[in-house]
Structures are given as C-alpha cells and as structure tokens.
Design brief:
The chain is an all-alpha fold and 59 residues long. The chain has helices spanning 2-15, 18-53. The longest helix has 36 residues, at 18-53.
C-alpha cells in the first residue's frame, strides 16, 4: 500500500504543478478531517441517546 502511495505521489509530482498538488493534498486532508468529525458526532449521539434512555452503551 505504501509503495502504491509513493508511486502515485511521484507521478503527481511529475504531472501536476506545485499549487495544484498542494490544493489536492489540502482537499484530501479536509476529507479525512470531515470523516473524523462525523465519527465523533456519531459516537457522541450514541452516548447521548444511551444517557437519555437510561441504557448503558455497549463497548
């Protein structure tokens, strides 16, 4: 997997200008952060739901 990512990174470096490469990396970082926040929201909603209904949350 790391080898594939490295190869793609090198191809990206050859084919895309620097600014576009940076924009693509920033966009991917934003996607990953959005996913992390969505997971955290889901976990918080489950905890709040369990607290509201008086049930313990399964771990």
């Amino acid at each position: 997997m790391h080898t594939t990512a490295r190869i793609l990174g090198r191809l990206e470096g050859l084919l895309l200008p620097g600014g576009q490469r940076t924009a693509r990396r920033n966009a991917w970082a934003a996607v990953l952060e959005d996913r992390r926040r969505a997971r955290a929201r889901g976990e918080a909603a489950a905890v709040l739901e369990a607290a509201a209904t008086g049930r313990r949350r399964a771990t």
